Amino acid sequence: QGQLVQSGTEVKMSGASVKVSCKASGYSFTGYYIHWVRQAPGQGLEWMGWLNPKSGGTKYAQKFQGRVTMSRDTSTSTGYMELSRLTSDDTAIYYCANAPWWELTSWGQGTLVTVSS
Amino acid sequence: QLVVTQSPSASASLGASVKLTCTLTSGHSSYAIVWHQQQPEKAPRFLMKVKADGSHTKGDGIPDRFSGSSSGAERFLTISSLQSEDEAVYYCQTWGSDVSVLFGGGTKLAVL
User: Fold this and answer.
1) CA distance B45 to chain A (A)
2) CB of A27 less than 8 A from some CB of B
3) How far is CA A14 from CA A18, A21, A63, B86, in A?
């Protein structure tokens, strides 16, 4: 299942964009989907979408359509999640996780994104 | 439409057993689910995958005290010999017909 290491804490102004990275090691990067999940303060887990690192194909949750972009760099085994037009409601910890398909099996440590007005 | 339901909270005494439930909407009783554990201030951790037939596959290093089972549209996580470090939020996760991923609201387990 390997290891996923995410980029560090981000502080953004309302209206800006944020790009979080997720570097994979210890497994075949193109053999597992990368999912992105977020958790607002004191709340549960919210699925944002997945990326197929082999094909580059993506599927986004309807809530984030038009505002999220997931991408990858196979040369560095890194996945990316970019979220635009940030508001205070986007303040959350963002996690990446890998999965054979839908069953998330290994999680990153999380990246705190704080949006201030 | 598939909905995943979990009780918001549960409690049990140190050394006892507890059984947490994840309920799928009727018509989805064939779906497998995954259980994740999130200890305070930590990232979630994969515990196991539970199939409709009750078979389960655990993640690396998950103690034998954790087991899974199924009955109809219900999926269960049983933790025996409860320890203080089992105090956590437990999330049930599955997939939707539109190739999306669904989480239950989580069950916060208190170890008394």
Assistant:
1) 7
2) no
3) 11, 20, 18, 38
Q: What is the pLDDT of residues B58-110, one digit of tens each?
A: 999 999 999 999 999 999 999 999 999 999 999 999 998 787 999 999 999 99
CA–CA–CA angle A46, B25, B89 (5° rounding): 40
* Token pair listed for B26: 């009727």
Angstrom distance (rounded) from CA A60 to CA A109: 22
B54: left (phi over 0), alpha (psi -120 to 50) or beta: left
Question: Does B91 contact A110 at a Cβ distance shorter than 8 Å?
Answer: no
DSSP string, A51-105: E-TTT--EEE-GGGTTTEEEEEETTTTEEEEEE-S--GGG-EEEEEEEESSSS--
3-state secondary structure of B84: helix
